[in-house]
Design brief:
α4 (72-82) packs across α8. This protein has helices at residues 25-37, 42-51, 55-70, 72-82, 90-104, 110-123, 130-142, 144-152, 159-168, 173-179, 197-206, 268-284, 305-315, 352-364, 369-374, 427-430, 433-450, 473-482; strands spanning 187-190, 211-223, 229-241, 258-260, 293-299, 342-349, 379-385, 406-412, 454-464, 486-489, 499-500, 505-507, 518-525. The strands form 2 sheets. Strands 5, 6, 7, 8, 9, 10, 11, 12 and 13 form a 9-stranded mixed sheet that branches. The chain has 527 residues and is α/β, with parallel strands linked by helices.
Length: 527
């Protein structure tokens, strides 16, 4: 069933990378919103907006832009109810919605909000609409609490997306749709190769930055020999800041001691790393296996947060390191751990600017290839710009074939990113209903291309930041149907995150950890 979007599109508008940044603060915000409606992402237009303003205006502009985006669809429905006739001009609709945000959410004085918004309509050369803008805003200003309640009553999503979430998450629907219009907390991942979460929390205290430790427990069953499987658990700790803070205010951020990463995103590297350690332990029991070199792949790796986390774990001098395996109980023990001599890490992404972003992030964290070589820990890192639907390892070699070469694959799959709408509210404007089907097909193509390159006994961790089942559990169910050598690794009841699915677990941005919406499924390739 197709659900139409609320806000009409103006066919006269054309996407442009030339964002004009002049005029009043409100005019610049309006132009930024128009650029987003034309297909530009928030991440591409936010800096040009803020950099064009004096320091004293940046905070207001940021709040006005982000709040308008978060409440966009609810404001559009409110506007339709206030107008006597349909308002088809997108510039006028956008201007009025910016005015409504000031009155309903930012507590700007009535006279200032109305006057400056009317003037903004003139500045963008829509003076003919000033009477309409003035009348609607004055009507709302008479009883803002009434209209705020009306705006907050339902969701602020395009109708097609709200409908799909109702189908996928009927029990959580109300809480979920309200949660997606809220501000997401800021999380930090601490580099375990440098310091502990507890010590970094103390450093934050010294900088008068309040933060809580969030600990997520993950349990799953992995084979520790050719005939048996054992439950394994791991703990992932991160820091949730009480208030978002500029990164340059964080202790030793420039030195790579910490990174900004959502708490649920911090699950990826520990899970695939622990699964890989289980594979190596199982192989140790096979006396015929003498290969001490392992090869791992991070597919669709940009901007490099999960890759960096995995490298940190590998490099850390503790039980998470592949060089220093040490486990308790029935898990991998130092006596049975393989002697790893070389680790080859390949990371791929399909856009050159995103590859450069990976390199920049690794450089800050002292995890570039040069840094890894200097550390003499036998880690070889290769970052490749390639299309994951077609790329094959060693394709430039004469004998290149789509053969199994990887011991573990982390696939941070492309998705509609509906799980991170709180952080990127432009997603609710940019995404269309057709994107779901197209994205699911892209995901399937990547899976079908990478799976043959995984060794027997190897693990693939499938991750998305989507909350739509078609991209997640339904994608995995379809994949399993067509790949008889794929075995689902079940997460156990030890997990204190996410909702159990037929395959994998789904995090929603409404749980106690306050993390974003992420999906995880762990697969092993049959021997």
């Amino acid at each position: 069933m197709r659900q139409n979007s609320t806000a009409p599109r103006n066919n006269k508008l054309k996407p442009s990378s030339n964002l004009i940044m002049n005029g009043s603060v409100r005019v610049r915000v309006i132009r930024t919103l128009l650029a987003i409606q034309n297909g530009q992402s928030l991440s591409s237009v936010l800096d040009p907006l803020l950099n064009s303003l004096h320091d004293g205006d940046k905070g207001f502009a940021h709040a006005l832009l982000l709040t308008t985006l978060r409440q966009w669809h609810a404001l559009a429905r409110l506007l339709d109810s206030l107008a006597d006739n349909p308002i088809d001009e997108v510039e006028v609709r956008t201007t009025i919605q910016v005015g409504l945000v000031q009155l309903l959410y930012l507590e700007v004085a009535d006279h200032a909000a109305i006057h400056e918004t009317v003037e903004a309509a003139k500045e963008i050369e829509f003076a003919h609409s000033t009477g309409l803008v003035n009348a609607i805003l004055r009507k709302v200003a008479k009883n803002p609490s009434k209209f705020r309640k009306k705006c907050d009553k339902k969701h602020s999503l395009p109708n097609w997306l709200a409908y799909q979430l109702k189908q996928d998450w009927s029990e959580q629907y109300d809480e979920l749709t309200q949660g997606l219009r809220q501000l997401a907390p800021m999380f930090l991942r601490v580099n375990s190769a440098v310091t502990s979460v507890e010590d970094y929390q103390h450093a934050l205290d010294g900088a008068e930055i309040d933060a809580d430790i969030v600990e997520l427990t993950t349990g799953f069953k992995v084979a520790n020999s050719s005939e048996s499987a054992a439950a394994t658990t791991l703990s992932t700790k991160g820091l949730r800041l009480h208030q978002s803070t500029a990164v340059n205010a964080l202790p030793d951020f420039a030195l790579g001691t910490a990174s900004v990463q959502d708490m649920h995103a911090q699950l990826a590297a520990p899970i695939i790393n622990k699964a890989l350690m289980a594979k190596l332990s199982a192989e140790k029991s096979d006396t015929e296996n003498t290969n001490n070199e392992i090869h791992i792949l991070d597919a669709c790796a940009a901007p490099g947060g999960k890759l960096a986390h995995w490298l940190e774990l590998i490099s850390a001098n503790d039980e998470s390191s592949l060089f220093h395996v040490k486990q308790d109980n029935n898990e991998i023990s130092s006596e049975t751990s393989p002697a790893i001599t070389d680790i080859k890490v390949t990371a791929i992404d399909n856009e050159a600017p995103r590859i450069e972003r990976i390199r920049e992030n690794l450089q800050r964290l002292n995890l570039s290839q040069h840094d890894l070589q200097q550390a003499d820990n036998s880690i070889a890192l290769n970052i490749v710009c390639a299309d994951a639907t077609r790329w094959q390892h060693g394709k430039n070699k004469k004998a290149a074939t789509n053969e199994p070469v990887f011991d573990a694959i982390l696939l941070d799959s492309p998705c509609t990113a509906t799980g991170v709408i709180r952080r990127h509210p432009d997603i609710s404007i940019l995404r269309t209903e057709e994107d779901i089907e197209q994205t699911a097909l892209l995901q399937a193509d990547i899976l079908h291309n990478l799976w043959p390159q995984l060794k027997a006994g190897g693990y693939l961790l499938y991750v998305t930041c989507s909350i739509l089942k078609q991209e997640n559990v339904e994608q995995m169910q379809d994949f399993i149907t067509h790949h008889n050598d794929a075995v689902v690794i079940e997460f156990t009841e030890d997990c204190n995150w996410g909702i159990e699915q037929a395959i994998g677990r789904q995090c929603l941005p409404i749980d106690s950890a306050s993390g974003d919406g992420f999906y995880y499924a762990l697969l092993q390739k049959n021997c």
